[in-house]
Design goal:
Blueprint: H1 2-9, H2 13-27, H3 30-43, E1 48-55, E2 61-71, H4 77-129, H5 144-201, H6 209-238, E3 247-250, H7 251-268, E4 272-277, E5 283-286, H8 288-305, E6 309-317, E7 320-327, H9 334-339, H10 359-369, E8 373-378, E9 384-391
Parallel strand pairs: 4-6
Antiparallel strand pairs: 1-2, 3-5, 6-7, 7-9, 8-9
Helix pairs in contact: 2-4, 3-4, 4-5, 5-6, 7-8, 8-10
């Protein structure tokens, strides 16, 4: 019985309404049933008459003959009343039963095939209009309404994910602005101090020329730092506007450019480089400028912390291009592993460096734009290891 119900639940709307109409059309055949009952009653009262046969010249009978009645048989009063009633019912029931059966078929069709999914969709629409996406549209059927509910659920899930992405972007922007404001205070405080110093002592000729030149040089360095900082901030803000534009590229072209990049950066830093690829594909469909930008950033970071060598590994698996950059430096601290992907993060050893802690953050955003992410860890034999993953079609 359960299988029958499941089979009926999965019937298409067209087949379902056809089934309802067919069933109730059979029910509507009351008039035919009445005529059959009349025939059975009349069979009990054969008319009186003679039966005639065709014969040959030799007197051989042909066929079963024909019966010609002379007068109808007398029926009982009860049977006559029954025939009158049945004739009346058969005549009147045709339009009545037809209308009632169509109505019943439509009502049952609505109750069994339309009511539940329509209520689900109406409730889902109302909750979505109130910006409530914490629910799911569950309707276990494979008919048209089931597919419609499934499409609605996909839309709701997409809206929920979009809202979460927007919330994460807003939260990331808030943290970015907070970090930017916080890090601006130091150079601004220094500039304010030197400005007050010169304003107070320069008019009184209490500052030597050498001291003045040194102060101005320091102020110039901080101004340049502020300019670079603002430029980096602008670059980080523009990441949200980047659109991924994929196109097919020859793998040999990709490998040559990436191999040349690591060799050049390592050579300029006085380091050794090791480049290894496991790619067997001839072409990849990707946004190579984005991939190359992430790659160059990771190579620059590795060269900054490496002691003697930088290594690169390329792998393609399950529609994902994996670019792993390793160095033989000190590796990441526990705090680095937690914070390194956040904007403006710098560890204690970097406090005096000129970089702004945006490198891995930019890499993460670009990887996510390309359907992937970055993963930070320490190598098995020491040193830092960063893997950038990109969704790529071969």
């Amino acid at each position: 019985m359960g299988k029958v119900k499941q089979l009926f639940r999965n019937l298409s709307l067209r087949k379902s309404i056809a089934l309802y109409i067919a069933v109730f059309a059979l029910i509507a055949l009351t008039s035919e049933l009445c005529y059959s009952a009349i025939a059975r009653i009349e069979k009990n009262y054969p008319p009186s008459g003679n039966q005639y046969y065709l014969t040959t010249e030799g007197g051989e009978q042909l066929g079963e003959g024909i019966y010609i009645g002379t007068s109808p048989a007398d029926m009982s009063a009860e049977d006559r009343r029954a025939i009158v009633v049945l004739n009346t019912v058969s005549t009147v029931s045709v339009p009545i039963y037809s209308a009632l059966c169509v109505i019943a078929a439509a009502l049952l069709f609505y109750r069994n095939k339309l009511k539940k999914p329509l209520l689900l969709l109406a409730d889902a629409s109302d909750r979505i209009s109130k910006n409530d996406l914490g629910f799911s549209v569950d309707y276990e059927s494979h008919d048209e309404m089931g597919r419609l509910c499934g499409s609605f659920e996909k839309m709701r899930a997409a809206l929920e994910e979009n809202n979460k992405s927007m919330w994460r972007a807003m939260e990331e922007r808030r943290r970015l602005n907070a970090a930017f404001s916080h890090d601006l205070r130091t150079p601004l405080t220094v500039l304010r101090g030197y400005t007050d110093f010169l304003k107070n002592y320069l008019p009184q000729s209490k500052v030597s020329g050498e001291k003045t030149i040194a102060t101005v040089a320091t102020m110039s360095e901080h101004i340049e730092r502020l300019e670079n900082y603002v430029q980096m901030m602008s670059e980080a803000q523009k990441l949200e506007d980047i659109t991924v534009l994929t196109k097919e590229m020859e793998v040999c072209t990709i490998l040559k450019q990436m191999r040349d990049t690591v060799q050049l950066v390592a050579q300029n830093a006085g380091l050794k480089s090791d480049f290894e690829s496991e790619l067997i594909e001839k072409q990849l469909c990707l946004d190579f400028p984005i991939v190359l930008r992430v790659y160059e950033n990771l190579i620059a970071n590795a060269a900054r912390y490496a002691e003697s060598a930088v290594s690169v590994r390329l792998k393609y698996s399950a529609s994902t291009l994996i670019v792993t950059v390793s160095d033989d430096g000190k590796g990441f601290t526990d705090e680095d592993l937690k914070q390194a992907g956040k904007p403006y993060y710098r560890n204690q050893a970097d406090s005096g460096e000129s970089h702004f802690g945006l490198g891995l953050y930019i890499c993460r955003v670009l990887c996510q734009k390309h359907g992937g992410d970055i993963f930070i860890e320490n190598g098995d034999h020491g040193g830092a290891k960063v893997s950038a993953k990109f969704y790529v079609k071969s």
